[in-house]
Amino acid sequence: MSAAASTETVAPLLSVEHLRIVAAARRREDLLVEDVSFAVHAGEFLGIVGESGCGKSMTALSMLGLLPGPNVRASGGRVLFDGQDILTMGGSSLRHLRGNDVAMIFQDPMSSLNPVQTIGEQIVETILLHEKIGRERAWARAVELLAEVNIPAAAQRARDYPHQLSGGMRQRVMIAMAIACKPRLLIADEPTTALDVTIQAQILELLDRLRRERGMAVILITHDLGVIAEYADRVLVMYSGRIVERAEVASLFAQPLHPYTHGLLGSVPPLEEEVDELVAIEGQPPSPGAWPSGCRFQPRCPQSRPECASWSVRLIESEPDHAAACILHEHGETSHAD
Amino acid sequence: MIGYIMRRLAAAVPVLLMVSLLAFLLMQIVPGDPAYAMAGSDASVTEIEAIRHDLGLDRAWYLRLADWYLALLRGDLGHSYTLRADVADLIIERIPVTLSIALYSLLIAIPCSIAMGIVAARFRGKLIDLGIMTTALLGVSLPNFWIGIMGILFFSVHLGWLPSGGYVPMGEDIGGWIRSMTLPALVLGTMQIGLLTRITRSEMLDIMHKDYVRTARAKGGSELRVLVRHALRNALVPIVTVIGLLFGMIVTGAVVVEQVFSIPGVGRLIVQAILTRDYPLIQGTLLFVAGAFVLINLLVDISYAYLDPRIRQA
User: Fold this and answer.
1) Using CA atoms, how far apart are residues B161 and B164, in angstroms rounded to an integer?
2) pTM surpassing 0.95?
C-alpha cells in the first residue's frame, strides 16, 4: 500500500461535485446516482467499492462522457477535470480528453477489443488519434507498450487478433491501449472480475506499477474489498447510488463507520484468523426506482431506527478524511457495537 | 484456400446436373411444343411432324436427356431452335449486358443502403429513422415492373432525361451506355436497397452496443470513425451474405427489367426461350444462372475469411 500524497494544497486532477445520473424510460425517471462528490489527485489510487447496481460504473462512465445516452444522462452536478466540466464538454474537446487525458479499461477484456483488427492496429489507432506521428513510429510505440505491460514476444503478438490471446493477455492489451497516450487518469472498471485469481494479482500489480512509474491517478472500481485493501490509498463505498462512506484505506478497515461497510467487511474472509461463519448482509440491494426514503440501507441495516427513514442523507465527517452517511454519527456518536 | 475452392467447385457439379434435370423434366410437363411455335399457326400436322423429326423430338425423353448430358461433357450446350445459333454463343453475347445492369444496380444499392442503414441505426426511433425504414419497406414491396413503368413515365416521358429503353454497348458510346442503363439499374436497385438497408440497420443496432464500440469511443475516435471503422466493419459479414443473396433477386429482377426496358440481356433470353419452348436454350440459360449462383456463393464464403480473422484461422 502506498501512502497518500500530500495533496492538501494542490488542486485535484478530477473533482466530482454533486453528480446526479438518471435513466429515463417512458414517462419515468429513475435515479441511478445521487449527490456523489469526491476528488482524485495526481498519482493517487482511489478505490470505489460497491455491489452491482450501486452506480459505480455509471459514475465511472460519466468521467469520460460515455454514459449510454440519450436515456441515461447526468442531470446535475459537475465532473471537473483540470477545472473543465466534462458533463458540458462539446464533441471535439471530449474526443481530445478521451484516451488522451483520461483513459478507461473495462470489465470484460474478451469483448472490449475489436475482433477484426490486430491488437497492434488498435493501439496504433489510439496513438494516431491524439498524436501527429507516422504510422511506423506509432507501430513501434505500440510494440513498446505491449512489452511494457509484460506481453512476451511483443513484436509478433502485435500482429495477433484478440481471439488469439488469453483473457489476461487481452486485459494487458487494453491497459497498453489505455496508457498509450500517457493519460493522467486511468479508470479501471472491474478490470479483473472476468479473470483468474492468479491473473488478477498480475493485472493489479501492473496497474499499480504503471501508476507509480508514470504518476498517473488510478480509479479502481471493484466489489472486492481485498483488492482495495491491497492497492488503494483512499476508498469510496457506494450503496444505491450514493457514497455511504469515504475514508483512507487504513482507517476504513480499522474502523468502518457505516453499518453497510461494516457488513461488507464481515463478508470478507480474513486471511490470518479462522472464522466459523462469514456474515452476509440480510436482503438484497434495492433496484433503482425502488429506493426507500431516507437512508437507502435502512431496511437491511441491523442498527436502523425509526428516524432513518426520514433522515436527510449526507456525509458526516467524524474524523479528518473519514466520513459516513449514517444517522448514528450525527451527534458525535463515533462508533457502533462491534 | 485453393484446395477449399476446388472442393467447393467440385461440390457444385451435382447441383448443376440436378438443376438441368429439373429444368428438363419441367419442360416435358409444360404443354406446348417447339415445333408448333416454329411452324406457325396454320401449319399442317405433317409439317409439324417433320419439324419434330428434324429436331429429334420424336425420340424418347430419356434419350434426348442423355444426348444433352453427353454433349455437355464435350462442352457443347447445343443449338437454339429458334435463334439458329449456338446456345453458348447466345449466352456469352448477352452476359456483358446483364452483368453491367447487375453491377450498376449494386453500385447504386450498396453505398446507398449502407449509408441509410447506418443513419437509421444511429438515429433509431427518430423521424429520419422512420423515413428511411418506410422508404426501405416501399423498395421491397413495390413490384419491379411498376417502378420501371413509373420511372419511364417520369424520367423519360415527363422530364425527357433518360431513354425509355434500348441498349447502347459500353464500347460504342460510354455516355449512351450510362444513359440507357441508369433507369434499369435504379429500378433493379430499389428492391436491393430496401433489403440491404434493413439488414444494415439491424446489424448496426446490434453491434453499436458491443463493448468494443464503447472502447472505440473511449479512445477518443469521432462518431463517424466509431460507426464505420469499428461497428460497420464488424457488421460486414452478414451484410455481404445478404449481398450474395441479392444476386438471386437481381436475376429475377433482370428478367422483368430487361423486358420492361427492352434490353437484350440474359433475362430476356430466358423469357424468349421459355415462350418459344426452345429446349436447348432453356437448358443452357438456366444452367448458366445456376452456375452463376454457385460462383457468387463461393465468392461470398471466400470473402468471409477476409472480413473476419476468426473464420480465417478456424
Assistant:
1) 9
2) no
